[in-house]
Amino acid sequence: MGSLKLDHPQEDNSNSSPMEMTSALDPVEFRRQGHMMVDFIADYYQNIDKYPVLSQVDPGYLRKRLPESAPDNPEPIETILQDVQEHIVPGLTHWQSPSFFAYFASNVSIAGFLGEMLSTGFNVVGFNWVSSPAATELESIVMDWLGNLLSLPKSFLFSGNGGGVIHGSTCEAIVCTMAASRDQMLSRIGGDNIGKLVVYGSDQTHSALQKASQIVGINPKNFRAIEATRSTTFALSPESLKLAISSDIEAGLVPLFLCATVGTTATTAVDPLGPLCDVAKHHGMWVHVDAAYAGSACICPEFRHFIDGIEGVDSFSFNAHKWFFTGLDCCCLWVKNPGALISSLSANPEFLRNKPTDSKQVVDYKDWQIALSRRFRAMKLWLVLRSYGVVNLRNFLRSHIKMAKLFEGLVAMDQRFEIVVPRNFSMVCFRVSPWVATINCKLLEAINASGRVFMTHAMVGGMYVIRCAVGVTQTEEKHIAMAWKVVQEHADVILKNHGDDGDANLKLALLDKIA
Amino acid sequence: MGSLKLDHPQEDNSNSSPMEMTSALDPVEFRRQGHMMVDFIADYYQNIDKYPVLSQVDPGYLRKRLPESAPDNPEPIETILQDVQEHIVPGLTHWQSPSFFAYFASNVSIAGFLGEMLSTGFNVVGFNWVSSPAATELESIVMDWLGNLLSLPKSFLFSGNGGGVIHGSTCEAIVCTMAASRDQMLSRIGGDNIGKLVVYGSDQTHSALQKASQIVGINPKNFRAIEATRSTTFALSPESLKLAISSDIEAGLVPLFLCATVGTTATTAVDPLGPLCDVAKHHGMWVHVDAAYAGSACICPEFRHFIDGIEGVDSFSFNAHKWFFTGLDCCCLWVKNPGALISSLSANPEFLRNKPTDSKQVVDYKDWQIALSRRFRAMKLWLVLRSYGVVNLRNFLRSHIKMAKLFEGLVAMDQRFEIVVPRNFSMVCFRVSPWVATINCKLLEAINASGRVFMTHAMVGGMYVIRCAVGVTQTEEKHIAMAWKVVQEHADVILKNHGDDGDANLKLALLDKIA
């Protein structure tokens, strides 16, 4: 690429003629550079399994490599792409690597990528209907499509006076629904009582709940993370919820909001929606369901039962950007009562006034979310649904689940290992004997330092477990087999060393176990 | 494109063999479809001034054209692109049209587009350092670069123990800084006193302030929108702020947060930062500066004075996605005390625990924002800065300002019109005589219905004004001349009709004027 630099001399400013601003979006140049970038990214995907999955750089690596200030003069795209390859790629943890099994995946697809390109290209700001009708209308339509695929009750769809909206993240979805529930409640009990409101989840609920609760002004003392134990496979027990609520009511507090989870982060546990709703609804609480990861699977009839009871809740969200091939960000939220959101989140300054809004015939999504500005995210969801079709999307999800099952089978055959909780979806929780954190942590660190796979851990019921979460688009069975081989190889070494330098480690392990 | 359909038969499911999931990111197919999409978008830019700027569709147009549910089987990209062209494009309001003068622009550029492609392609989720070191480090670096371009005091940069972060929107930036200020204050005055906290801005402040205040649990009764009048060209007067604060303190309330604006939405008014800080700091308040639109201009030395006094504030944000060529979304926020954000927004669940975080040597941006997940937005900012260089970026901004000046000159030459406030940046506020809302509103509606330009309005000091905001990448002087011609032509017609059917309209106008 070096020779191309001749066309873009880097002399000092006085010699270079200033660019015309319009050339910054010149279609001919857009085409040239756009094609170059498509090839760059295609090459990246082609070579992705050559990179260490977990980046191996040290903190501060990049500042040493980049200049201290922005350049005065333009640099050619060829130079920039060389820098991306040399300086950025080594600092990436490769979330699209077929050997990425950490956290939950955030998978991308050709259709998701193209949808993002269209949305970026149009770059419309669809805060209200009039600012770009197609952005609003397509979002309402695909959210109804997706709601139907999930067999959501009609009350969550636009056709049933509910409706769906695309947020950036689960935390945002919870902030908005919790603010709506807070304001509804305060209008009943008086605006000065915010300090009495209580929010509930299990201790397996995602940290987004606590963060949202903190953001909307719930007193941190009134946040309840109710213990979920191995006896319920880490699902929230309705009985425990009932007890917590009773005790709060006795203390003069007001139960506000329950977040139930379908597919917890640590173990993919599923809270029982129906029985939990029975308890919460008795106290007039708002119930939100966070199915960030597992929601996708519920488009398959055989997994739909995991959201049984959904008819009783107020809001439901899942992240299409996790396991539905859209890429970041795309959190799908449905609510039964959009009016509650709108009442808390609407602001109608004069500069946004327009006839369609005044006519009340249109949706203005600015009132369903935190930000005023919003990207045209529905585009990628529409492209994913159309490019693959429901039949393939279901099969994609099933294929991930089948691979997790394969991994589970491999673990089960090795008697040094234990599957810690039953597998619900495409994630396997396991640990190696001795069942102590030190050994399992050491094993995980060794696996990840190899660069061949990336997995992460969780602590549940005092157990340190390793999580193998399948969900990347390009993962195939051979990657599962390889991942298991990496785990076994490192376990061999660690257990051998553990045996060798015996006493000290053993004591540590025993202490760990007693604690 | 029709013939291509033959390769993608749409028969019923039983005949079509299921796709392999991995093909959803097959590099060969990625390349083919990616190139096709680059051409589609390049064509769109090439033809953009053939479309009506403001979409002319009616509410509900799209539901009539699309199927009721997602397809079972895959559809070829060629068909989808045809549908985009036929059904989506007519429903777009073309924000990238050179004749878009509404709201504030959200301009895109080749570099911004390519940066978004890279970020989408890598699709890393950079919630903490370890999850993708390059994403975090590049963000810290470009935020320091940009902070230096704005001559921000060192206390806002990482090198000075402050730091910058990229949010999605100004509202998000205000929610986070306000939550931080709230928690700092509550730790001083006791956690049960949230009901006493008061938030201040002028009545020209963006609605994001009120929304943020509502979200973080400030009692709606404690939100102050202090009147800013024509006498201060709609800037917030420090004297008025002082009065409002005194009266609140007398009532036993606690002043918390001031949002000052550099470049208001209605008229691009600039609040005087220094004097306002003097008042607010006397009461230990947090001062945030919202320079969403005008912040970009402050990289030009001749406009830097608009943020004089910035050394006294706690946080500062501007939207690179408005007037800095990145495309949506890219809100740059700097804070002096990241610890305050982190203390309010951090959640450290076990599944995110890792050695670099424990070592405290790294930035974990999840604790600087609402969401856990985050896109690699720094990439597009880096590409914009490098592809154009500081010299060109300044000239791009100056060229928009010069065009606004040109428009201003044209308006000033026509005695039927009035420039309502002095122009500060690239936006002109004007109205036509008779100075009544009915006439000016009718004029604006006629202009926009023509499809040839799109402008929006504001109400300030009882005046209905039309705003011509220049800021789209491809706008040239010829578009300015054309826009003015459209305004004049419609004014001719409306004023003539107004004269003709005289009495009724005249009375209406006079009534309006007296009111």
How widely separated are the two ends of chain A?
A: 60 Å
Say what oligomer this is: homodimer
Number of strands of chain A: 11
Report helical residue fraction of chain A. 40-55%
Report the total helices of chain A.
Answer: 16
CATH level-two architecture of the largest domain in chain A:
3-Layer(aba) Sandwich
Walkthrough of the structure:
Two copies of one chain form a homodimer. In chain A, strand 2 (197-202), helix 7 (207-215) and strand 3 (223-226) form a beta-alpha-beta unit. In chain A, 59% of the residues are buried. Chain A contains 16 helices and eleven strands. In chain A, helix 5 runs parallel beside helix 13 and helix 15 (477-500) crosses helix 16 (502-514). Chain A has helices at residues 27-47, 61-65, 77-88, 110-122, 133-149, 170-189, 207-215, 238-250, 273-282, 320-323, 338-345, 355-358, 378-413, 437-449, 477-500, 502-514, and strands at 163-167, 197-202, 223-226, 254-261, 286-290, 315-319, 331-335, 417-419, 427-432, 456-460, 463-469. The model of chain A is unreliable at 1-15 (pLDDT under 50). Chain A has three domains: 20-90, dopa decarboxylase, N-terminal domain, CATH 1.20.1340.10; 125-375, Aspartate Aminotransferase, domain 2; 395-514, Aspartate Aminotransferase, domain 1, CATH 3.90.1150. Helix content of chain A is 43%, strand content 11%. In chain A, the strands form two sheets. In chain A, strands 1-7-6-5-4-2-3 form a seven-stranded mixed β-sheet, with helices on both faces. Chain A has a four-stranded antiparallel β-sheet with strand order 8-9-11-10. Chain A is globular, with a radius of gyration of 26 Å. Chain A is an alpha/beta fold and 515 residues long. At the A-B interface, helix 1, helix 2, helix 3, helix 4 and helix 5 of A face helix 1, helix 2, helix 3, helix 4 and helix 5 of B. Chains A, B: Keywords: Decarboxylase, Lyase, Pyridoxal phosphate. Chains A, B: Residues 1-11 have a biased composition (Basic and acidic residues). Chains A, B: One of its GO terms (biological process) is carboxylic acid metabolic process. Chains A, B: The modification N6-(pyridoxal phosphate)lysine is found at residue 322. Chains A, B: InterPro entries: Aromatic_deC, PyrdxlP-dep_de-COase, PyrdxlP-dep_Trfase, PyrdxlP-dep_Trfase_major, PyrdxlP-dep_Trfase_small, Pyridoxal-P_BS.
